[in-house]
Amino acid sequence: MPGKIDVGDFLVGILSNIASIVVVGVLGGIWYLALRWRLRDFFGRFTPRIRRRGVPLLGWADVKVEALVSPPSPSELKRAGTVITIGSPGYNVASQFVEENLDPPVRFANDCSELALRSGDRVGDAGSGVAERLVDRTTGQVLFYLAGPSIAGTSAAAKYLVNDWRQLRRRQRRGLPYQVVQALSPDGEHYTVVPSGGE
User: Fold this and answer.
1) Per-residue pLDDT reduced to its tens digit, 53-70
2) Which one of 19, 21, 56, 130 is most buried, counting C-beta atoms within 10 A?
3) 3-class DSSP state of 151
4) Residue 53, helix vs strand vs coil
5) Is the pLDDT of residue 12 over 70?
6) With contact defined as beta carbons under 8 Å apart, do 194 and 176 qualify?
């Protein structure tokens, strides 16, 4: 589907100018595999209501979703379609690309042991995670960055995107393209939203 869909919805922002959605994680744990497949399966759970004048424009069947292991170098990253990257830049080349090239509002600090705002102010603790929606200004590619300094924090960020993407959409419309979450369980299955910036 060439070009952009002229519909002002965040979900369409995920789908605009894409042929695919790529979920990138690292090989190193069953939990990463489970997260990648959970996000991949999310796109098969419902049919989006993307219509113009009552005519459906796009269905999930039109979108190819891949779950990939982090490539060994940034030059091997998919540079078309939407990318959902899971994990810290210490383990994931796609996350490293995000931190080095897209200036995310929340990033890793102190050798990936904590999250911090651009200002350097620390955000949360080891159980915190962040879900961010970023756009590469040179290519227009949309990247979702889901990460935390622990398995629990990263898992909570991924679970947040799957369960509460509408809330992230509302935040982005207010100029806040991220949400910090706090894991309430060791596996990140249960989390709470951390009030931040403009709440």
Assistant:
1) 555 554 444 456 666 778
2) 130
3) helix
4) coil
5) no
6) no
Domain that holds residue 28: 10-193
pLDDT digits (tens, 9 = 90+) for 103-118: 999 999 988 999 999 9
Query: Residue with structure tokens 């991220």?
Result: 178
CATH code for the domain in which residue 135 is found: 3.30.379.10
* Total tally of structural domains belonging to the chain: 1
Tell me whether residue 4 is in a domain: no
The tokens describing 31, both together, are 């939990």
Residue 45 lies in a domain: yes
Domain assignment present for residue 152? The answer is: yes
CA distance 108 to 104: 10
CB atoms within 10 A of CB 119: 6
167 located within any domain:
yes
How many helices (H) and strands (E) would you count in the chain? 4, 12
Residue 70 pLDDT: 80
**Would you give the distance in Å from CA 87 to the centre of its chain?**
10
Handedness of CA 111, 116, 118, 121 (dihedral sign): negative
Q: Which residues have a Cβ under 8 Å from the Cβ of 27 and sit 6 or more positions away?
A: 69, 70
Among 113, 73, 68, which residue's Cα sits nearest to residue 93?
A: 73
Do 131 and 160 contact (CB within 8 A), yes or no? Answer: yes
Name the residue with tokens 């005519």.
55
Planar angle of CA 188, 47, 8, nearest 5 degrees = 90
- 52 pLDDT band, cuts 50/70/90, is low
